[in-house]
Amino acid sequence: MMGRQPTPQQKLFYERIRLDQRIRSDHVLRQIATHIDFDFIYQEVRDSYGSNGNVSVPPPVILKMMLLLILYNVRSERELLATIPERLDWLWFLGFDLDSEIPNHSVLSKARTRWGAEAFKLFFERIVLQCVEAGLVDGRKLFMDSCLVQADASNNSVVNTQSLKAQLDKGYRKLQERLDEPEQPEAVNRTHVSTTDPDASTVRRGAGRSRLKYQVHRAVDERCEVITATEVSTGAVHEAHRMDSLLDGHARNTGVAAEVCVADSKYGTMDNYLSCHDRGVKSHFASLEHGQRGSGRQAGILPKESFRYEASTDSFICPAGRQLTPRRFNSQRQQWEYTATSKTCIHCSLRPQCTRSRSGRSLKRHRRQEALDQMLLQAQSLQGRADRKQRQHLMERSFARGTRYGIKRARWRRLWRVAIQEYLTATIQNVMVLVRHLKEPLRAAPMLLRRVEDSSRPVAQGTGKQLVVKAAGWLSHLWTAWPFPNRLVFGGSI
Fold first, then answer.
1. Domain count for the chain
2. What is the spatial distance between Cα 451 and Cα 471, in angstroms, rounded to a whole number?
3. Which of 141, 311, 350, 466 is the most exposed place for a label (fewest CB within 10 A)?
4. Are 88 and 226 contained in the same domain?
5. For residue range 172-206, what is the model confidence (pLDDT) as tens digits?
6. Are 245 and 393 found together in one domain?
7. Is residue 49 left, alpha or beta, with left meaning phi > 0 and alpha meaning psi from -120 to 50?
8. Closest C-alpha among 191, 132, 136 to residue 161
9. Which pLDDT tens digit goes with each residue over 17-52?
10. How far apart (Å, rounded) are the C-alpha atoms in residues 72 and 397?
């Protein structure tokens, strides 16, 4: 017999109802509440509050609200506060009852302004440390990359700073003449700025339109893909300039100095190679200079490797047997320039393949070229190429996971607010890794075993020795992937 729902009648009182009983045991918020301590924020932000006046919303509640905002990718803070009374799981997570008074949405923006980005950075660092203590971070091999973030500003807000400055100088010329020491105009390194979000930069990738962007830089550990360091910069900052700060942040947050740094060719600058050499870090990223060879004006020109360096005479020998000697030293780039005489190049039969310059072919050699050559050999090794191939899907996966939390677009304006968003996003991604492995610590084992089986199938693609080495590499990764202090082995434990 078909049942019919009676007309609902509102109850005035509910008895024996506990929100804790309405939240399932495997709910993500229950897992977060079990493993994450939010009370640390009391100590961190106590200087931001006075000793008298109105009582504020407890800081842990504010931090949890910010976490919910990013975790569920809620469109706005108004919508978040309007949805909280409708969600039993959110009420339970925040420590509210069914009839609790919900704070105003302005509480969140005021807390961000009062706390600053430092409080959220400390939250991120605490979660990284917790992942280290749980055995989820190895710390020795570090992967780096960056992604662009759409700023919360329209292209219509972009103005030309040069024309704007000219108009201001014209209007205030009399005022400038009355100053004792008139301010000299500074060099402008970019011609356009947004009046809505001055920290955002106009960036264009490929053939698309220029858009206002920020840039997120991340360092990800290999073992469980925990984000160990993250930074936010304007879109105009080159990602190669953030390698040192990411390495320092990784060592500070994990207590382990990286031994291998894996990145794409955009990080392959001379400064980064020498920095890795001085740190004792293996540089598994391709050279930016080598990647640009054979394109533009260098198309069809003999590369630098076609010239032989003679250490005894400190000179280069060209393919035609001519000598290039040092002429001048660039103190800014720490490079010697080697050139041949113009008469030598004019009568050379290889000139069309060697140079298009009227003054002849020139080569540059760094003052620490031996160290650069050593790091380039590491980058070109088999392990270096394998790590770069692994980096492609590992870093793409890290940013793809952040997409569900709104990493592609900035929620707020100004650099420090976008940094807060990235700290919360990276924290949530690390929390999800922490919760998953604490709940199912052996979940990675079957997956890695399947990879070993798959890697041993295509016998025709390599020799038996190569397949054995490949399988041994996966077993070694399996050995380090399990987050137990005493790792299990087949047949027992050690």
1. 4
2. 9
3. 311
4. no
5. 555 555 554 444 433 333 677 888 888 888 887 77
6. yes
7. beta
8. 191
9. 788 888 998 899 999 999 999 999 999 999 999 888
10. 19
